[in-house]
Description:
The complex is a heterodimer of chains A (559) and B (92). Chain A has 559 residues and is mostly helical.
Amino acid sequence: xxxxxxxxxxxxxxxxxxxxxxxxxxxxxxxxxxxxxxxxxxxxxxxxxxxxxxxxxxxxxxxxxxxxxxxxxxxxxxxxxxxxxxxxxxxxxxxxxxxxxxxxxxxxxxxxxxxxxxxxxxxxxxxxxxxxxxxxxxxxxxxxxxxxxxxxxxxxxxxxxxxxxxxxxxxxxxxxxxxxxxxxxxxxxxxxxxxxxxxxxxxxxxxxxxxxxxxxxxxxxxxxxxxxxxxxxxxxxxxxxxxxxxxxxxxxxxxxxxxxxxxxxxxxxxxxxxxxxxxxxxxxxxxxxxxxxxxxxxxxxxxxxxxxxxxxxxxxxxxxxxxxxxxxxxxxxxxxxxxxxxxxxxxxxxxxxxxxxxxxxxxxxxxxxxxxxxxxxxxxxxxxxxxxxxxxxxxxxxxxxxxxxxxxxxxxxxxxxxxxxxxxxxxxxxxxxxxxxxxxxxxxxxxxxxxxxxxxxxxxxxxxxxxxxxxxxxxxxxxxxxxxxxxxxxxxxxxxxxxxxxxxxxxxxxxxxxxxxxxxxxxxxxxxxxxxxxxxxxxxxxxxxxxxxxxxxxxxxxx
Amino acid sequence: xxxxxxxxxxxxxxxxxxxxxxxxxxxxxxxxxxxxxxxxxxxxxxxxxxxxxxxxxxxxxxxxxxxxxxxxxxxxxxxxxxxxxxxxxxxx
Lengths: 559, 92
């Protein structure tokens, strides 16, 4: 069977599964719709959180990025996992104890203020929306490359599927489809990784193959030593050496960790479990499920890099395998025979380099590069779709609950009934799907860059406000609002300045303290904390009932 | 007595969280970023230690930290919940 036939088969099977789950899990109340009735078991919630969290970027792009930047790629790995420690220890149990439906719910009640609630609604919608557009685009890319359907149809099919199970089942439907999607995506990521690890090092566990000796066919010696040698020989920096400054690494890692812990679609998952104990447990399970992919990714990155260099360097263009031509036609691999010798020279020197390889294709093309069977190649497409759709669904639910619950029910239309609220929730999902789909088909040129926004903004707005709401009893509404506005505005302006207004100045020389726009969210979070604390010292303490609320969040749970 | 009990519980909780976060900081920001070049002088199997901590090792430690937290909090909760019902101060 051809790759395309296998791909159609896998995609059809997985989509059938998702639709089946959606029909089984349809809901009738807002409680089921927003938080799955609060009875998701911790193990299932851990898997759902992992799928919710691991997006098209984790699945498709991350290993590829690491394989081109080497050791510095660690900020993705540590940043996107270390955030779960913060989430488990500082946020999840307390927010579950608080027991409402959304993040703006907590901000609005804890800071006894409609202004604070609306600031939180605004942040939640901006952050989730930016993120959702990227997912739709990711799904579209997988469709157009593997199934060779037009990008527009690809996005529309993806939208229709997500819409179907999000509207029918709300959080409950999303949760159980995410469990299935986790299984699909982790299987699709691990199978090729294990195959390649066996092929290159003889070790079936990629995490160990990463530190093993290469087989004779690949030249022997430790993989990483060989990679360092090859890189330097071709004029690239050594793979295991860092290029970014230490302080930039520090701040980017911190921004990704804090941002992870502050992302509303991740936090909201911990509202769906029966109790505080289960919230803690599911954070632990979630990190295990995420770590399976995240500890494999750096190994895949190293395998892919070594494999690519071995395959192309100084080899005749006419002798390239079939996949090279396929990816060349998509424009994601470009070869320009500058010195006219008919061979590919791949070097770190811009003057003599003849090959451009798009980073995103490393995971998608890796099985082909390693010559794995067709069904393995096809599996990767189904995995990429599972990763994109699961994250998109989680984000759409945040947008919908922010509109129907926080903006309408608890904001401007408190008189609506549960049934009407549910209808509004479903309508806002429809609207969000359509808008996200539109941007998936007509991506604004800056989609990739705005992703830095989502993390920076979550880090600078939500995280400090929630942390202080729990750990600082004296924190009041004036402090929290001032802090959120200051952190959000500072981070947004810094990124806008360097990414859109004056991109020419976007270099370490002109950055504040040498911190890149990707890392500025951590400074924004710090600013938020300082402003909030200072303002709260000069304004009245929160009312007694709010202090009682904080005391209750801190008390052990009674079963 | 409930007030004092709550306070003792909260203090024990903060102590636990701070000590776990200290480890979290040491393995990620410490070993993976600040001291990475020093640790790279130590090798095991095909890895330099600093590189390994930055790309894999810290993630394994994160998992252990969360599970230690789960276990310790379960015990802490059980102790204070029981004592809360009996109206005694169980911090002793």
